[in-house]
Specification:
173 residues; 5-stranded mixed sheet; alpha+beta; 44% helix
Amino acid sequence: MVEKDVINALRHARHDWLNIIQLIKANVELKRYDRIEDIIEKAAQQAFCESRLSSLYVTKVEYYLLTYHWNQHPVQLELEVIGEPFSLKHEEDRLFRLCQSVLEKLNDTCTEDAEHNVLISFLFKEKTCHITFDFHGVVKMNEDEWETLEPFNLQVEEFHEHECLLSASFWKK
């Protein structure tokens, strides 16, 4: 099973990089050189964030977030890691269930006629990690429906029809 997982991961990584190369090639042909720099910068930032995510030592969370786009989801995912990461291994299960629950709820309640994106930010301070889910799109739900995720101490910072900002905090052990 491990060999299949590795081969699958390599296949997806190769596919992602080929997409980036094709974007660069198309923009070279169109002489849109300014766009090429943006594509390369975005790919480098994504690779950097994915690398920093491994510094959290939360294998289940890392696997879930890094393989999220391998399946068809209406909500597109971006990640960022800000500050000096520290291990959240002691919170791995809670963090995994939080990420999975928020993404499932967004995917289940978003409309079919709009573009949907969520940026998950891990903001590290000295003794805490604040995680925000910054969603842009259209959801068919009310603010109070987030209360079902109460065990995660999820806070609704903003909620509008086209934007939703949620946050939770985790402490350094």
